[in-house]
Amino acid sequence: MPFVSWILLTNDDGVDSPALKPFFDALLTLGETRVVVPATQRSWIGKALTRFEPIRVAEVEGEGHPWITVSGTPADAVQVGAGYFEDPPRLVVSGINIGYNHGAGYIISSGTVGAAFEGWELGIPSVAFSTGVPGAWQTWYPLMKSPDSKPTWEGLAEISVDILRDLMATNYEADVVSVNLPWQARSDTPRRVVPPARVTYGQMHHKQVDGTFTHNYQEDFGDVPLDGTDVGVNHAGEIAITFLMAPASPSVPDPIRARLERE
After folding, report:
1. Nearest of 74, 86, 87 to residue 129 by alpha carbon
2. Distance (Å, whole) CA 183 – CA 99
3. Which of 144, 186, 206, 230, by CA, is between 20 and 30 Å from 22?
4. Average pLDDT over residues 172-185
5. Could you tell me the sign of the dihedral formed by the alpha carbons of 190, 193, 198, 204, in that order?
6. What b/e string do you get for 17-55 counting C-beta neighbours within 10 Å, with b at 16 or more?
């Protein structure tokens, strides 16, 4: 994939994400970059689109650059970004997400990856970036949101752009590429091209005494094999690069096909 005319940067953590400006600055070394992001945090929303209400669009000051915010979802941001300017982007970059998006259950739920798949739907090469640490989100989320995290975000942005540069120098075939970087990744951290682990996040909404359900989960993948997967690579402190396809069907055995089909 050759270098592009301009890059659309989006995310699911909103315009206030501590990762946004460092990533924007780093992407400028690859070419013109424009920001279109949700106005507020829109995590765990997958590739949802706004259908029955208008999307409000606003320009905000992004450190000397006009950034666009949308009232909708990350996928909405990609749709708006593709039509807001005179020409469409040639690359969609989503992230860097606060928290890993590794493993099948997380991938299909992620607004960060969902935005990248919206780019695929529009025929635009798309790459999603996420970072995290193993363990409870209550521990790492405040760490990543704190002002002290700025140097780490700057380092992760540089690593992400280096991966993008290598990726664009190839003729890779994938609908979306998802990159998961350990929070402590450095320029010499090993990188592995691996498939997603077939894991879920399990029961995450728990019933309370008043009948409501609250969101509370711990990362626990049980006995599912993780070696050679994105989750396993991240748990080893390495960078996982995962090539993804839009929904596709497995091979269906002839006896099953014969039972189900009708002429």
Report:
1. 74
2. 9
3. 230
4. 97
5. positive
6. bbbbbbbbbbbeebeebbbbbbbebbbbbbbbbbeeeee
Residue 246 burial (10 A CB sphere; 0-12, 13-18, 19+):
exposed
What are the backbone angles phi and psi of residue 211, rounded to the nearest 5°?
A: 90, -10
- Fill in the DSSP letter of residue 177: E
Q: What is the pLDDT of residues 142-162, one digit of tens each?
A: 989 999 999 999 999 999 999
Q: Residue 81 corresponds to which amino acid?
A: G
Predicted pLDDT of residue 139:
83
List, for residues 196-226, the tens digit of each pLDDT value. 999 988 887 888 999 998 877 667 777 888 9
Residue closest to 111 by CA, chosen among 175, 28, 40, 52: 40
pLDDT at 3: 55
Beta strands, E only, 133-251: 176-182, 191-193, 205-207, 213-215, 239-244
* C-beta of residue 34 within 8 angstroms of C-beta of residue 68: yes
Specify whether the CB–CB gap between 60 and 67 falls below 8 A. Answer: yes
* Contact of 60 with 15, CB cutoff 8 Å: yes
pLDDT recorded at residue 230: 98
CA distances from 207 to 34, 44, 63, 174, 216 (A): 42, 20, 44, 40, 10
User: Token pair of 29, please?
Assistant: 């070394």
Instruction: Please name the residue that has the structure tokens 């050759």.
Output: 2
The pair of structure tokens assigned to 204 is 């995450």
